[in-house]
Amino acid sequence: MLALGVVAAGCGDDDGGGTTTAGGGAAQTQATDVRGSVSVIGIWTGDEQRSFQAVIDAFNERYPDVTVRYTSAGDNLPTVVGTAVQGGNPPDIATIAQPGLIREFQRQGALRPIDYARDTIEQNYAPDFVELGTIDGSLYSFVYKGANKSTVWYNVEAFRNAGVDDPDDWAEFLRNARTLGASGVPAYSIAGADGWTLTDLFENIYLRQAGPDKYDQLSEHRIPWTDPSVREALRTMSEVLSDRANIVGGTQGALQTEFPASVEAVFQNPARGAQVIEGDFVPGVVAESTRLEPETGFNVYSFPEIGDSEDYVVGGGDSIATFRDTPAVRAFVEFLASTEGATAWAERGGFSSPNRTVSEDVYPDEITASVATAIAEARTFRFDMSDLAPAAFGGTPGQGEWKILQDFLANPSDINGTAEALEASAARAYR
Q1: pLDDT by residue (tens digit) across 303-358?
Q2: Which end of the chain offers a freer environment for a tag, N or C, measured as fewer CB atoms within 10 Å?
């Protein structure tokens, strides 16, 4: 009730310029002519909320007569926004991490197209991102804050002691793991208690091994999870999971390890684990006062190639979607899609922009710059498959893909049974 009250309070203001119709080709309104207010509901809290306020402040330097009110709904955003939509009083803009939810709102007729920003977005974003936000030929969203999930974070001292370097491909990745284990430090720190980390590992393998077309087909359940390509990816994934002695705590320990603990095992000296396979948000899990120094203490490399998969990136991100179309909303959307709108947050850190016009020089350190620009420059980018799926299959603890891959961690030899369980669960969820 409190959340809905906040939504309602931010949504009823006069836009100062009247509602406009959606579509491309309209002339840009001069900044001095735009007045009104914009209500935004997002997931960002704490430092992220303060960084987004800095973006709003930069916007207001250009549009001083537009008031942007941001409300954080945290992890409850889908429920808060969904309830507001049902009540007929949505925010002007929402930042949504699940493309499937965006499509659901579009099917309900709740979203407004942002084709007026298409030229800006097509100029600044790779085609894969434009396609991600396109529904039935119209543009409805774009990823503002990205997450590169095709990264592996490692303890520099553990790698140095074992005499291994960043691997170029999957075969070298596995060889390095054996060498790390022989040096006395388990190669893999796995957060098996959080099923989403296992979906990320599967998706990185599947995209590289099966290719983007198959990835798209599987994400929409146009091919079954019993397809040979799925079995092959599970077989490759089992090369990591079946190396039980090389996992921090073994299989049972991994099944009881949550994500922050899996990172802490690597980000300490002496390390309890050599590397953790997860996204660019890994360093933020460890308190800055206790974590190792970047480059000298911890470092990162891209998820290893499998076959001809150079510059393939699996990622997530928070997309901008609009429920109203006013001059003030259009101005804010255009600003967020611009170089300036992305740079205002990128220079503060904790942010990866898919916007190709953001200079890597604005990021606060080389590691952040490398993982962020990998998203923008990726030859092939695909959104996290589990976030594209119905939540009952791809995003609910204790069921669906999360639970089935946890069972696979416990028994990585059961490739056929795992594929069949995944298909049975997907068939129910995609009905």
Answers
A1: 999 988 888 999 999 999 999 999 999 999 999 999 999 999 999 988 999 999 99
A2: N
Distance from C-alpha of 400 to C-alpha of 422, rounded to nearest angstrom:
7
Give residue-wise pLDDT tens across range 68-105. Answer: 999 999 888 999 999 999 999 999 999 999 898 999 99
Q: What is the pTM of this model?
A: 0.84
